[in-house]
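User: what does the whole thing look like in 3D?
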Amino acid sequence: MMSALSRSDFPLLAASPRLVYLDSAATTQKPRAVLDAIRDFYESDNANPHRGAYALSVRATQRYHDARARVAKFLGVSDTDCLIFTRGTTESLNLVAASWGRANVRAGDEIVVTGAEHHANFVPWQQLAIETGARFRICELTADGAIDLDRLRAMLGSKTKVVAFAHVSNVLGTIAPVREIVELAHGVGAIAVCDGAQAAPHLTVRFDASGVDFFAASGHKMLGPMGIGVLAGRRALLDAMPPFLTGGDMIEFVEDEHSTWNRLPHKFEAGTPNAAGAVGLAAAVGVLERVGMDAVRAHELALVGAAYRRLAAIDGVRIYGPGPEDRSGVLSFNVGDVHPHDLATILDSHHVCIRAGHHCAQPLMRRLGVSATARASFYVYNDDADIDALVNGVMAAREMFSRVGA
Amino acid sequence: MSAPDDRNRAPNAPDAQQANVAALYQELILDHYRRPRNRGKLESPDVALRKKNPLCGDVIDLQVQFDGDTVRDVRFTGEGCAISQAAASMLTQRLKGKSSADAAQILDRFTRMVHGEEGAADESLGDLRALSGVSRLPVRHPCALLASDALAEALASRR
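Assistant: Here's the predicted 3D structure for the full assembly of 565 residues, as structure tokens:
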């Protein structure tokens, strides 16, 4: 199939016609529209938002405000003030664990995550449990790497305060049953925290309708710049939470002995905001809206299906996780006894970029019984020629290693 | 849409990096990966240590037995890529029977070769010179140096 967006829309890909970029789950390439929007902000409207009583600062404030409204709409957040800009998913999840967690989790409470979590949705909760004396529990996955709802149901109870889960696994591409997980969590009075880093770029996200209490995502995985991300939260929860970082912009009045906090969203945005990043993310959202998230999903399904079938047909290739129809555009695999790092080096010499290693998900690697996998991930600029190059590279690596018998 | 492009165009000749990588994964290296020498554990090692590469998760458990100032025996276990495993296999082979000073010198030369220092690889490295192509793959330097760093630490601990 053809790509959903042309390589010529992406300056880096246009400048490197031989490059096969299959690491979008780590970070995506940036379309010209995003780069132009960032440049335009700095060239036309750059000033510190919320500070100056002059027209330029008002324009900067307006651009930042418009970016928030646009991203909130894209993620189905109707209460725009509840869309907080952060540095990315990691900061968003740390914000929830630190601010909501310390205020609401006590010794003896339970925090539940799944065995598929990326470190960003694992370590903050693990550390919160250590700090508070709460019990940190991991819900094991089914044999094909899906969330085991029966097991989850059995684990939850009156002590459960948080259920944190990835909407889409960054290793297996498994898509979590969000609605069912939220119902289970709310059924025992726990909050549901959704790591949407691999969902927002690839699926239609409707935060309000999903029922999740907090949703985190990163701009750079969805065509936007690095260093900007979001946290969407329920107003009642956000209002009741203490600040995460303190300093400028997030205060109302600062007395010598105490301070009061600004209203949402500013309460959680201490310091000068990454306004240019927000403007760039809004432009990225614009690009995705023009393509349409249904078209993005259909394109990835076609690519991952073709890649799955062709890789699975190669002798010695093992693919982890569910079948191609149930996954996002991510494929983790191994090729015989070719170590993923060697495979990545050989593929790189064929201009094919894949990820090799533990994908910041060591707990999941342990559960898969491997120390590392190779991972190819697809996005709007990939097409059949990329899959051809991946398959050819894998065959070349296999060939190279087959010269010496085991 | 993207027109037929350069991505699957067979080059007239493999480019330099492709040739370098093909040369690196030569039979000697793959043989050491598939049949590592000195893999296992010693009954009573004088030094035992573990080294990790947190970036990729590679681990080596190294054990060394000395006979006075001489490296009498070396064993390793661990998991890793062809480069790290072959390096461990070849280095342990190379160091056995050497004095501590000679062994340290070999490790120093090997490290400098991996870092791409001109003229670092001499005959004292023997088969280890097969790994010289790693110098042009900076992300793989830690793989090549994991065993070497562990061995250097083991030697240093005896001083």
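In plain terms: The first strand of chain A starts at residue 20 and ends at 21. DSSP finds 14 helices and 15 strands in chain A.
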